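Quarterly update from the structural biology core.
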Amino acid sequence: MKRITPYKTVTGAVRALDNGGRFYNLFTTAGDDTITKAELAKVAGAFKDMQTAMLFFDLATLDLSDGDRQKLTKSLGPKLRKARATNRTDVVSPAEFVRAGRAGKSYLIEGVPEPIDEEAVQTGVIMVPMMIGKVMMVMPMPTSECFSVYTLGQGRRSPCLILAKKSVRLSSAVHRFAGVAKATKMGDGPRARERLCLQPAYYSVVDE
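Predicted structure, tokenized:
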């Protein structure tokens, strides 16, 4: 989860986004009035995941006017416009996320995070190449990662839950979180349960 500072002017946004990509993006040119997937990936730091890159774009441009955001959207290249249509970020309140959030979708939520004395665990599988005799095999290896949990909004019975890596400490200021909704295991043992949480890729601080 990375903290970012949203763009304050459309000029600054264009300068940052229309950046030419990385050195090996030979067909991408800085300052050509077209923002490509490679250019957005570079500034977002998300080179293989367009859903994450779009979360950056939507949070980083949120403070701009509607007209300026439309201008930036028109500057997106054809492939990036298609990726944006596929990876839409819904701007919702904490209560709306609890009521209608769906796992796998992108959301942008604003509120004051409050830590709770509970951890969340996400499990998964990675494929690891291993030599078995003289044969290279790809073996599945289980993984797990623990997160601190914060509530957002005023819902007491069913609050909006935000996951943050242990290394991140959120203040009691108004934050904006852009991330993906994920079903996450809460608690241990027989009391363990799954809850829908927002796992932010990016956040910004509105009032600190």
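Helices lie at 10-17, 37-44, 50-60, 66-74, 78-86, 94-100.
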